[in-house]
Design brief:
By secondary structure, the protein is α+β, with helices and mostly antiparallel strands. It is built from four helices and nine strands.
Amino acid sequence: MVIYEADVPGVGKRYEVETGDGERAVVIIHHDGKRELFRRADPDADAEKLFDLTAEQSRQLATSLEGTDFQPLDLDDIDVPLGGALMEWVEIPEKSPVAGETMGSVHLGKQTGVTIAAIQRGDETIGSPGADTTLQAGDILVAIGSRSEQNALESLLETGSVEDSD
């Protein structure tokens, strides 16, 4: 990871972190402890201000980002009950080819191997959705399946086809 650091005369310091997708996160730390967080989507454009943080809020956020209270798991190397099945919440992207289709016409289970236990649609929860349930962009699918089945589901939701992820 590359972090760019620069003095901002009369203000403090600026740090820019490449996020890997061409964007940068920009943090300006003022001499009085105030922090400003920006997002730079285009290197030739001005950064978009996201929010301000006090020094205390910054320390609390840094602790969360560092993960001192929580250590994520490498799910590819973890043993889980139910024969390796995982439960994940997967959102249907805005321009998904399956948006507007029914569960029955898409055949999520047959194509990917996952079981859809529920759909969260705004404040509504659809438990055990049937074949006639229409999928919508923004729906959050509660999917149960192996890591490779979950990867196949994400591929199907994004591209309309299942790519071999093994």
